[in-house]
Amino acid sequence: MKPTLEIIYKIFKGNLEYLKNHDENYFIPFKDSQNPRIALLTCSDARVQTSIFGIDSMNEIFVARDIGNQIMPVFGSIDYAIYNLKTPILLIMGHSHCGAIKAVFSNYEDQPFDIIRELDHLSIPIRHIKHRKHQFDEEWLRITELNVDYQVKLAIKKYHELIENNELLVIGIIDDFANVYQMGEGRLIIINVNGTTDPEKNRNKPVFENFDPELKNQIFKRAHIHKNEGL
Question: What secondary structure, in 3-state letters, does 136-180 show?
Answer without folding.
Answer: HHHHHHHHHHHHHHHHHHHHHHHHHHHHHCCCCEEEEEEEECCCC
